[in-house]
Amino acid sequence: MATKSRKSRPGLTLAIFLLAAASLFGIMALGKIWTPKLGLDLKGGMTITLTATNPQVDPDNMELARGIIQNRVDSLGVSEASVTISGDRDIVVSAPNVQRDDLVNLIGSTAQLAFRPVLQIAQVGEQPDSGYDKLPTPKPDPSDVGTQLPIADVLAYAQTPADAQAFQVYQCGDEIATKLDQATVACNREKNTKFLLGPVALVGERVTNAASGVPQGEVSSVVTLTFDSEGTESLRALTTSLVAKSNPTNQFAVVLDGVVESNAVVQSAINDGQAQISGNFTPESAASLANVLKFGSLPLNFEPSQVETVSATLGGEQLRVGLLAGAIGLALVIAYCFVYYRGLGIVVVGSLAVAAVVTYASMVILGEAMGFALNLPAIAGAIVAIGVTADSFVIYFERIRDEIRDGRSLKSALTTGWEKARSTIIVADMVSILSALVLFILAVGGVKGFAFSLGLTTLIDLAVCFFFTKPVVQLLGYTKFFGQGHKLSGLDASHMGVSRDSLLGRRRRSTAHAKGA
Amino acid sequence: MSTKHGLAHRFYTGQVSYEFVGKRRTWYIFSGILLLICLAGVLIRGLSLGIDFRGGTDFQVSMPVTSTTVDDVRQKVSEFEVKNLDAQVFSLGESAVRIQTRALNPEETSSVRAGIGAIAGVEAKDVTYTAIGASWGKQVSEKALLALVVFIILVMALIGIWFRNWKMSLAAVIALAHDLAVTVGVYALVGFTVTPATVIGVLTILGYSLYDTVVVFDRVTENTRGIKDSHETYGGAANRAINQVLIRSLNTTVIGVLPVTALLIGGAILHSGPLADLGLALFIGMVAGAYSSIFIATPLLVQMKEREPEQVAHRKALERRAERHQQREERKVEAKAAGDAEPDAEESRAVGTGARQQRRTHLSREQRKKQRR
């Protein structure tokens, strides 16, 4: 702008810049938002990072999974929760002011529902708890799930000796790979009954609706499923065939994520495509199962790779300490600048203040516009940026002094010093922005917040340096205090080892002679 | 008057000057020893990876800490319903306790959380926890490594294009590698736990270290513009550049380190929170960055640059010129010895001022006379 024109007009540049800065506050006033969005590490809440464990992850499937998880979270009544995709295989769920340990299971379970004919049932005693359960990792092995067999083949499936062997050694809680086209073993939720099950007859994708409720005349909740036409047909074929068999092979089991939710003896063929799952459901667990089934099973397997809860007290503490560290850092830098640059310290304080105000306003507006939430790493990024910002002034001021040492007058040094400092500031800031950009695009988790605020503040630094610091220094050059190089201005002649006349651009022969002698 | 001049002034004009480039051997050796110590630190002591890289659950709760608290808590935790916790208990200053366990499933988490709340006498919801799957750390480090590689390629391109000098890119990246190695080494030696915050810090050093190097290179570029027509060698001009920006470099480092120190102190108040990890990594990286841009990047650049045939020819020309100059001086001395009729004092003064003026400009005497008017 002004820097390009031959005659720079510092006053005008300054006015336009301040107007632009003020307009940011105008936007804030319009939206009536005065504080930036806070991250959960600062206000308390729960952050769950789910990582897809499938070898191949399709972006479309990630988007689909995100939508399903968002639906599940919303239906759980968790307010203000955000579900975002991070990188190519992470989904981050942030739920403020929530402390529910079961949330991880509710939102991350795959919900792979299957109907399988029962081949064998056995009661098992109480298993000793090994205590070595992993974080909940829904099986089956994602790499090879097999293909679903036609319903006729499922019904014709006969138990093999290998199946019987597997059933014999199986203990509830063992992790096994299951395939759609093979028999499998599973336990019920209470882990007191184990089942040998035939291949999958019907999968959860065929469910068009699911509802929970307590049927008339009963006490426990059930989940009612409605199937699409293909599902209805399969269910009819399955039940028609099973009704003629003997116990226990006249039963079918509803398996959800490797657990038998319910098993039922087929009394008569089901023709209307409606099925009920009954088990030991509470109204809540029935509702959440119906919910999970209705919104569909996740197209990918997810593993909770990070679960973080921060209590509101600790969040407040972190915010306080972060801000305190920022304030101390700012104060130290300002003190140093006053000691070293004396009067020019005022320019530093002014510029940093303007940068801080613009940064704050940008964070508030961006928080609203693109969901940028201020978290602890972001505060750290801003604190680090104080150094980068102040350094731009150091480069500029040192350049002015260098120019004066080279024998220029203060007036011309202000101009040439800027011209030379300008390219240094640009390239140095570009390196900083580049690193922020790379970090933002490639990194995971909190690094993103850090990179964002570092990049944002560096951009603001460039703007402040060009449209605030430079015009202000130029204007101050007109004043007597700075323009005449007062002792406390940071621009006095003796400090830089030049004569006062050289500083003020006066060339008098008498002084030149006096010096020479 | 000259005694009153600041140090900055003396560095700028060359009254005080250090042979950064000339004594590069000494500094290379120093850097080499430093790197060896760091390497030994990593190899012998190893990096202590945080829970984020191992997988597990980390509980934190506020409670007053006395000398017996840690043992008490460890004892009580071992009596929990959930068995084989592999619990490690640490005190965080005097007001909080951290308990790290193996990876827990949600039910176990609830139970342990409630148990810890009972020990501390607070509600379960006031117990903060972080659960990390075993693959998380791998994912974080893989991404960080990718970011590192992409950044180095991009920044080499940026420096190469901006300064039109690929040797600068190479020298800057070597200096960067030095900074990263030193930071990692110090982490191993100090025994600080490596957390994702550390990774952030290390990645930020990339930007900061190069920022410093770029400022020095900017000055080198300026000083060596038109070097072929000057009396300076590339090395001399580069050394002058370092001396000129030395004060700025010190200022920058101090100004950059001040807020980071605040971060470190703030983190210490919070007890090894992410702020302290970040602060330490940045602190080391910034100091190393300032050091390497002066003692490694620029001397390396000079070494590479002076091998160019152009610069070799330039140096030869300067040598020849210096020889001729010396011969001329010798002849002058001989001539002076022959005719000693003139008064000594007057002549020495004339020669003195004459020589000084000649050094400053390469204008002829006539031109100088004109200029003086």
Describe the structure.
The complex is a heterodimer of chains A (517) and B (373). Chain A has 16 helices and 13 strands. Chain A has 517 residues and is of the alpha+beta class. Chain A has three domains: 71 residues, Alpha-Beta Plaits (2-Layer Sandwich), CATH 3.30.70.3400; 170 residues, Gyrase A, domain 2 (2-Layer Sandwich), CATH 3.30.1360; 204 residues, Multidrug efflux transporter AcrB transmembrane fold (Up-down Bundle). The radius of gyration of chain A is 35 Å and the shape is rod-shaped. By secondary structure, chain B is α+β, with helices and mostly antiparallel strands. Chain B folds into two domains: 221 residues, Multidrug efflux transporter AcrB transmembrane domain (Multidrug efflux transporter AcrB transmembrane fold); 77 residues, Alpha-Beta Plaits. A four-stranded antiparallel beta sheet of chain B has the order 3-4-2-5. Chain B is elongated and about 110 Å long. Classes of the chains: A alpha+beta (517), B alpha+beta (373). Chains A and B meet through strand 13, helix 9, helix 11, helix 12 and helix 13 of A and helix 1, helix 5, strand 5, helix 6 and helix 8 of B. Strand 13 of chain A pairs antiparallel with strand 5 of chain B, so a sheet runs across the interface.
Q: What's this entry about, in short?
A:
The complex is a heterodimer of chains A (517) and B (373). With 517 residues, chain A is α+β, with helices and mostly antiparallel strands.
Keywords for this structure?
heterodimer; A: 517 residues; alpha+beta; Alpha-Beta Plaits; Gyrase A, domain 2; Multidrug efflux transporter AcrB transmembrane fold; five-stranded mixed beta barrel; 13 strands; 17% strand; B: 373 residues; 2 domains; four-stranded antiparallel beta sheet; two-stranded parallel ribbon; 13 helices; 71% helix; 7% strand; elongated
